[in-house]
Amino acid sequence: MTQWIFHVGTMKTGTSSLQRSLYKNRDKLLAHGVLYPDVGLLGGSHVDLYWSCRTKNLGKRAEEMYSGVSTEDMVEEINTLISGSRPKYCVISAEHFSFTHPSNYKELFKQVGDYRVVLYLRDQISLIDSMYRQRVAFGGLTEPFDVFFADGLERERVGSCDLNYSKLTEKWVSVVGRDRLIVRNHGELVRKDIVTDFFDALGDDSVGVLPRINANPSLEGPYLDFMLSVNKYMPEQYRRKIRRILKYLQSNLNNRVERSGRNKKNVLLSEEQVDAVKVRFYASNQKVAARYFNAKELFA
């Protein structure tokens, strides 16, 4: 029987890289018993399937992009693919599933039969840093980092990412149960890539090595500062073109820096802000470390 695997993010944990690698290597994966269905997909992510679970609360842009196909019809189409190939796993990936309470997906989970959920967690310090860069690059953000930081710490949420991981994991457990939830530490990816780690999480190393793709690098240094100014003073149609140029320029610069061996990135958080994050989430991180990793600390 095919087991459905829902990779639900969170954001900035290599989700785009995993999705593009899985999508690009669909034929190879299927030969090894892994179906990455071309149903509910948009840009390599199953975001259309996510939207089908939340049709009453979509934003304007999502409403324009959503196909309108129901969850039931998408699952039926995927089950047809499963019947034809009989894979060991059917992988569904969209970080959007971590944006809202998992109770929104109860009907989806009821329809698929056997399933597990894979959730990656990134240390809150680097996540806050990376989310700010992301919102400047793609969300038109204009506010200074200190304002963004203070608001995120108060709400325990930056963008669509929860920062209190004890509460986040408990939400998922309340819906899917402890046995179905697999929690992974994004920090471990320094020793291996996201695709290898993902299949390790499933206890399956039969797929082998897939090409590594760095799909969504963050803006840094002068590129970040320049994009902030662009967001403030230029209309959206120009921002998109400038954003593409900046990403291209930074990508070329990063390649040169990596070849030179000097690839240290400046962190936006001050020492005081770093300490504030550590204090705020110390107890929460300890709970997650003990429950899911049999460890005293979640992030070294």
Descriptive key words:
300 residues; alpha/beta; 2 domains; two-stranded antiparallel sheet; 7 strands; 52% helix; 9% strand; globular
Q: Major sheet: order of its strands?
A: 2-3-1-4-7
* Range of strand content: 5-15%
Helix content: 40-55%
First-last Cα distance: 39 Å
Number of β-strand runs:
7
Gross morphology: globular
Mean pLDDT: 87
- Largest pleated sheet: 5 strands, parallel
Low-confidence stretches: 255-263
Q: What oligomeric state best describes the polypeptide chains here?
A: single chain
- Return the CATH topology of the largest domain: Rossmann fold
Written as H for each helix and E for each strand, in order along the chain, the element string is: EHHEHHHEHEHHEEHEHHHH
**CATH class value of the largest domain:** Alpha Beta
In angstroms, what is the radius of gyration? 20 Å
* Count of DSSP-assigned helices: 13
CATH architecture of the largest domain: 3-Layer(aba) Sandwich
Instruction: Quickly count the domains.
Output: 2
Global structural class: alpha/beta
Lay out the secondary structure:
Elements: E1 3-7, H1 15-24, H2 26-31, E2 34-35, H3 47-53, H4 60-65, H5 71-85, E3 89-93, H6 106-112, E4 115-121, H7 124-138, H8 145-155, E5 157-158, E6 161-162, H9 165-176, E7 181-185, H10 194-201, H11 221-233, H12 236-260, H13 271-292
Parallel strand pairs: 1-3, 1-4, 2-3, 4-7
Antiparallel strand pairs: 5-6
